[in-house]
Amino acid sequence: MFKKLAIGLVRTYQRFISPMFPPSCIYTPSCSNYTIQAIKHHGVIKGSIMGIGRILRCHPFITGGEDPVPDYFTLRRNKDFRQVKKAKDLQEFVRNQKNQKNF
């Protein structure tokens, strides 16, 4: 019940408030979609905390990019994202992952 209410609040924001401003989220998925996914996966309290943490990380002084909801509760960026950042580009990261799976 609380999950549906929390997700409904985020969806209300997405439908009525977000369109009034230009797109500004530097992450994929967007901060609101991240929050919904986090609530679905980790519950209302942990998911909401993760969503707030994500919003606080979303500013122009940090590199954005792919940052999916991790399988475990954390307020840090997803570990896989840091690996992508260390790779010269995303294609190199994908090649490395495929090579590791072939072993």
Automatic annotation (TrEMBL):
Keywords: Cell membrane, Membrane
Highest taxon above the source species: Bacteria
An annotated GO cellular component: plasma membrane
UniProt cross-references to SMART domains, sorted A to Z: Haemolytic
Chief location of this protein within or outside the cell: membrane
InterPro entries: Membr_insert_effic_factor_YidD (IPR002696)
Pfam families on file: YidD
Membrane topology field: Peripheral membrane protein
Keyword Cell membrane: yes
Location of the protein in the cell: Cell membrane
Family classification: Belongs to the UPF0161 family.
UniProt cross-references to PANTHER family, sorted A to Z: MEMBRANE PROTEIN INSERTION EFFICIENCY FACTOR-RELATED (PTHR33383)
Function: Could be involved in insertion of integral membrane proteins into the membrane.
Protein name as annotated: Putative membrane protein insertion efficiency factor
Organism: Granulicatella balaenopterae
